[in-house]
Design goal:
The protein has 10 helices and 4 strands. With 212 residues, it is α+β, with helices and mostly antiparallel strands. It has a 4-stranded mixed sheet. The radius of gyration is 17 Å and the shape is globular. It is an enzyme of class 2 (transferase).
């Protein structure tokens, strides 16, 4: 971390629409605020399991609110999240473990692609409603994000390797250690201590805490 910059870590999983909103807002603010933004791909399923949390959509009233909330936030932040009632079943039925391992593999090998690749996964899943658990869709996402076919193929082979699996598990455990119980989990390292912010609607508060 360069002098005077606050390290801000964003723990996210592309299954989470609120993570997409938080990701885009922090991507914009990293050029305005004096922060070093670090993307930390993690596995939401692991966090839910470890903390006993449940997907918000499992509570009918909360699901009802979430539909309106995400539509409003998408419009406000100008992020093309599309959401409807049948998305809740779709999300519960789709595993993002493969996608998050693929994103982890790029973080380990070609981190400059981490931002565009993560964004492309969200676009596929939340704008185009595609099943990102299928290898051919993962490869299509990679091509769209500017990766060569060779690199994409190599990363796809890496997702079953112990190194990638361990890295994703470790990142997920790190988020839990900071107190995360859902996503996005944003951790700002300020005044020699970590400050956890949950959700995409706490970013003004984050700014205030770090003096921005």
């Amino acid at each position: 971390v360069s002098m005077g910059r606050t390290l801000v870590e964003l723990f996210y999983d592309v299954v989470s629409p609120y993570s997409w909103l938080g990701f885009e807002v922090l991507c914009r603010y990293q050029h305005i605020w004096n922060i070093d933004l670090r993307f930390r791909p993690a596995f939401l399923g692991g966090i839910m399991q470890a903390t006993g949390n449940k997907p918000p959509a499992m509570l009918p009233k909360r699901a009802e609110y979430m539909l309106k909330d995400i539509k409003r936030m998408a419009k406000y932040y100008q992020v093309p999240v599309q959401i409807s009632e049948d998305d809740f079943q779709r999300v519960l039925g789709t595993g993002t473990l493969g996608a998050m391992r693929f994103i982890t593999a790029i973080d380990m090998t070609q981190p400059r692609y981490l931002e565009p690749l993560s964004r492309e996964f969200w676009i596929r899943f939340w704008s185009q409603r595609e099943d990102i658990s299928q290898p051919e869709n993962i490869l299509a996402v990679a091509r769209q994000a500017g990766l060569s076919s060779e690199l994409a193929q190599k990363l796809l082979e890496m997702i079953s390797s112990p190194a990638v699996k361990n890295r994703l598990r470790e990142t997920t455990e790190e988020a839990i250690k900071y107190g995360a119980f859902g996503m996005p989990a944003v951790v700002a390292h300020f005044n020699a201590e970590p400050h956890l912010f949950f959700g995409s609607d706490r970013l003004e508060l984050l700014g205030s805490v770090i003096g921005e």
